[in-house]
């Protein structure tokens, strides 16, 4: 594959999606159709339909392993239908969440085992990992305070309303993943003002995917 695959990761309230939207506004003009921006779960019709089931706040009976399997299923469809074709077409792919989210949220947060969830996703992705992962680091309490203060109640999903203990386990899971993948992870201090986080993100992507921004 000729393209470059970069993921955005972080705990709830880190602001990565807001940052990503501002980064896209800049890169759309610079890259045009050489850029693909997508998200997980989602990114295409089937995966978005699975997303709606996973995140529906009314699905309180959902078993944790069912949840993990649904994420993996959505990821598989997303990969084969959306990500791989874009990489084969030499595009820069920016994805809001990927495998690391499942390992942190379901593996650590739901306590069903980080290694078990990782193996499940190795099957789903055929072990495809991103070239780099930009991690938006923020203390759990700060992230949850942001959600409570700023997020539209209609956009709060099943994971947003989990306990503080759950979110602390997720954060600890992310720290473990980051330590084990130090060559892939690049951390940004997400407690900064959003303009600073956006500027840091743009600078990092220019550094790790500079070939896309060279003048023809």
From TrEMBL:
<dbReference type="InterPro" id="IPR018094">
    <property type="entry name" value="Thymidylate_kinase"/>
</dbReference>
<keyword id="KW-0808">Transferase</keyword>
<comment type="similarity">
    <text>Belongs to the thymidylate kinase family.</text>
</comment>
<feature type="binding site">
    <location>
        <begin position="10"/>
        <end position="17"/>
    </location>
    <ligand>
        <name>ATP</name>
    </ligand>
</feature>
<keyword id="KW-0545">Nucleotide biosynthesis</keyword>
<dbReference type="GO" id="GO:0006227">
    <property type="term" value="P:dUDP biosynthetic process"/>
</dbReference>
<dbReference type="InterPro" id="IPR039430">
    <property type="entry name" value="Thymidylate_kin-like_dom"/>
</dbReference>
<dbReference type="InterPro" id="IPR027417">
    <property type="entry name" value="P-loop_NTPase"/>
</dbReference>
<dbReference type="InterPro" id="IPR018095">
    <property type="entry name" value="Thymidylate_kin_CS"/>
</dbReference>
<dbReference type="GO" id="GO:0006233">
    <property type="term" value="P:dTDP biosynthetic process"/>
</dbReference>
<keyword id="KW-0547">Nucleotide-binding</keyword>
<dbReference type="GO" id="GO:0006235">
    <property type="term" value="P:dTTP biosynthetic process"/>
</dbReference>
<keyword id="KW-0418">Kinase</keyword>
<protein>
    <recommendedName>
        <fullName>Thymidylate kinase</fullName>
        <ecNumber>2.7.4.9</ecNumber>
    </recommendedName>
</protein>
<dbReference type="GO" id="GO:0004798">
    <property type="term" value="F:dTMP kinase activity"/>
</dbReference>
<dbReference type="GO" id="GO:0005829">
    <property type="term" value="C:cytosol"/>
</dbReference>
<dbReference type="GO" id="GO:0005524">
    <property type="term" value="F:ATP binding"/>
</dbReference>
<dbReference type="Pfam" id="PF02223">
    <property type="entry name" value="Thymidylate_kin"/>
</dbReference>
<comment type="function">
    <text>Phosphorylation of dTMP to form dTDP in both de novo and salvage pathways of dTTP synthesis.</text>
</comment>
<feature type="domain" description="Thymidylate kinase-like">
    <location>
        <begin position="8"/>
        <end position="200"/>
    </location>
</feature>
<keyword id="KW-0067">ATP-binding</keyword>
């Amino acid at each position: 594959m000729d393209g470059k695959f970069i993921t955005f990761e972080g705990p709830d309230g880190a602001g990565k999606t807001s940052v990503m939207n501002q980064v896209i506004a800049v890169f759309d003009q610079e890259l045009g159709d050489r850029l693909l921006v997508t998200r997980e779960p989602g990114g295409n019709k089937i995966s978005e339909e699975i997303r709606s089931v996973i995140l529906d706040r009314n699905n309180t009976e959902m078993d944790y392993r069912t949840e993990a399997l649904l994420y993996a299923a959505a990821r598989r469809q997303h990969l084969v239908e959306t990500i791989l074709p874009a990489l084969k077409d030499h595009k820069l792919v920016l994805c809001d969440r990927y495998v690391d989210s499942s390992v942190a949220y379901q593996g650590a947060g739901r306590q069903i085992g980080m290694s078990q969830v990782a193996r499940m996703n190795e099957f789903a992705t055929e072990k495809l990992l991103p070239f780099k992962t930009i991690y938006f680091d923020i203390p759990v309490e700060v992230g949850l305070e942001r959600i409570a203060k700023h997020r539209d109640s209609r956009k709060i999903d099943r994971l947003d309303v989990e306990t503080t203990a759950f979110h602390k386990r997720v954060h600890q899971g992310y720290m473990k993943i980051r330590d084990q993948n130090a060559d892939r992870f690049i951390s940004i201090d997400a407690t900064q003002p959003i303009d600073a986080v956006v500027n840091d993100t743009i600078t990092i992507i220019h550094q790790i995917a500079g070939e896309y921004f060279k003048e023809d």
